[in-house]
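FAQ: What does a ligand-bound record look like?

Like this one, built around pyridoxal-5'-phosphate:
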Amino acid sequence: MTIFNEHQQEVARTLRNSVSRSDWTDWKWQVRNAVKTVDDFERVLGIEFPARKKRVYEQTLGKFPMAVTPYYLSLIDVDDYANDPVFLQSFPSPEELKIGRYDMTDPLHEDEDSPVPGITHRYPDRVLFHVSNTCAMYCRHCTRKRKVGDVDSIPSRDNLERGLEYIRNTPQVRDVLLSGGDPLMLSDEKLDWLLTEIRAIDHVEVVRIGTRTPVVLPYRITDELVSMLAKHHPLWLNTHFNHPRELTASSRRAIQRLADAGIPLGNQSVLLAGVNDCQRLIRTLNLKLIKNRIRPYYLYQCDLSEGLTHFRTPIGKGIEIIESLRGHTSGFSVPTYVVDAPGGGGKIPVMPNYVVSWGPNKVVLRNYEGVITTYHEPESYEAKYCDRECAKCNLQLKEDDAEEKAIGIERLLSDWDECTSLTPESNERMGRRDDAA
Ligand SMILES: *Cc1c(COP(=O)(O)O)cnc(C)c1O
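The answer part, i.e. the structure of the complex:
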């Protein structure tokens, strides 16, 4: 497929009378001409929904708005649109109005783990910084569906300043993840300013950008943007391909520019029923990503956000997919399958079980073929008593500031923490002990 092919020219013509290749490949033209109504959608694709269905689609848009870039829309296979992965990710389904029993508006408690507006501080050493309230394309499976189209805007410098101030005042933060909305909806100038401010903070070691523009608006990845980004290394970028069909000529070119600028690229897919819940498809996607220098990073279980019931698969589907990847293909084309814990517990990896059994010094393991093997653990291993006095340790990692405290399960494994069990605060049995005391 070439960039601005005949079909795309036709899509463009139905939107505007005369559209040149340079209009089409101008990201601002794409954003300005995003399709937002069912009528326009029908017109551009030359399809007609039955009147009854159309009413429900419009009703759905009343709750969850639509925006699709003409580019992304041009990838839809009109002859089989109902099964088309691009259609399913961009066009509303009446199923979105169904609220499942366990659905939540903010399942990841991002708003609660937010010390200042725009920052989610969940993990000890890194923060999510929401720097844009808008996206080029509204993914139907968005985990932040509660916010889509709410305040379609780029926060002012003053608003962003509060987030920056929090990062400046929080020395534990060594990794800042720009998210949104889509951070690449910011102008080059604004982004340059923001990255400069973040880079000026001594304790911030890396910056990451999470963006779907290489997939839905590849023309955003201009030479100017890329050379600006390259000034702010070490900078990592994660994108969001869900289906091999999304790796078009335009997308590949965008990716190539980013990779050539030395920006390490990762991909975060979401497992979606009817879109990509197939091991062969995920494998094809991941191998294609690798070929284009993108490392598959996460495969997400679909969150418990409202309006996503029809997209969810059982977790077993994801484990089955990983089962057919690990060992079968290059290790670096296997993403980590994660469930983002409802309630804000963060990402929890899930995978097939490879440890079959365990004795005092033997571990029984199985491989992807079903071969069962034993690994002999060392007969004598002198466990080093660790009191976290790193200055006296002979492992040659002399850290000045080695006083981090242990968190969670790590405490149960350590010598220097007295903790032997972790008990929920509301445990009734412990409550009785307190009452008796
Ligand atoms: C996903 C996420 C991160 C980054 O997690 P990594 O596992 O380091 O990629 C950070 N903060 C929040 C709130 C997140 O959801």
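Follow-up question: can I read anything off the structure? Yes, for example: The longest helix spans residues 51-63.
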